[in-house]
Automatic annotation (TrEMBL):
Region (Disordered): 1-23
Extent of Polar residues compositional bias: 1-15
InterPro entries per the UniProt record, alphabetical: SAM-dependent_MTases_sf
Source organism per UniProt: Pilimelia anulata
Protein name: Uncharacterized protein
Length: 204
């Protein structure tokens, strides 16, 4: 789970890396290099493992609302219980692909607000090809059902060489980026947003 600053920490709240916005939240960088088993459009093996082990303890229930089989595999390999249909208040963690529409987001957030136990987290994973998007409406909708925007995670899929990330795009990735509808660059990260079920909002 995300840690709070220790009593001996010299950092102050003003020096913590944050994402500017409404509200501003801490930002974390994860090294989750791709493996040979990863599918380009799905959550990678290392990213799935990092999500599960960082936000759920052994024996906890993880509710899966993604299209990626790696979440179930990560749960099985780390002693977490995987389900797609949790009982009310059962889930310590819900992992979901970020909804593309307002209507879909409303449905998901409603389900999550029932499934999560107090202190549990929802993690929304951006599509692999996601571009810039205004998520303030999502944050507001989550807050309305008792889910506080808690953290932004940037999961980098490139290999690390010392303090540098190194990635060599494939010919197919370069071709796709150069298409008229392409982004003009090759993305080597996924954005994750974490929402916290506050204990006092269990009945929100």
């Amino acid at each position: 789970m995300p840690s709070t600053p220790s009593k001996n920490s010299s950092r102050t709240p003003d020096t913590v890396d944050q994402v500017a916005g409404e509200p501003p939240v801490p930002i974390s960088l994860w090294r989750t290099a791709r493996t040979a088993d990863d599918a380009p459009d799905l959550i990678g093996v290392r990213l799935a493992a990092a999500i599960i082990t960082s936000y759920a303890n052994v024996g906890d229930t993880v509710a899966d609302h993604t299209t990626s089989p790696t979440i179930a595999s990560a749960c099985a390999g780390s002693g977490r219980r995987h389900t797609t249909d949790p009982d009310p208040g059962e889930a310590a963690l819900v992992v979901a692909d970020r909804p593309e529409t307002t209507a879909a987001a409303a449905v998901l957030l409603g389900e999550v607000s029932v499934a999560l136990r107090p202190g549990g987290c929802l993690i929304l994973v951006d599509p692999a090809d996601a571009g810039p998007v205004d998520l303030r409406p999502m944050h507001a909708a989550a807050a309305a059902v008792g889910l506080a925007y808690f953290q932004h995670i940037v999961a980098v899929a490139a290999q690390a060489d010392g303090d540098r990330f190194v990635y060599y795009p494939t010919p197919a990735e370069l071709e796709a980026a150069a298409e008229p509808a392409g982004s003009g660059h090759v993305r080597v990260h996924r954005d994750l947003r974490v929402y916290l079920r506050r204990a006092g909002d269990a009945d929100a």
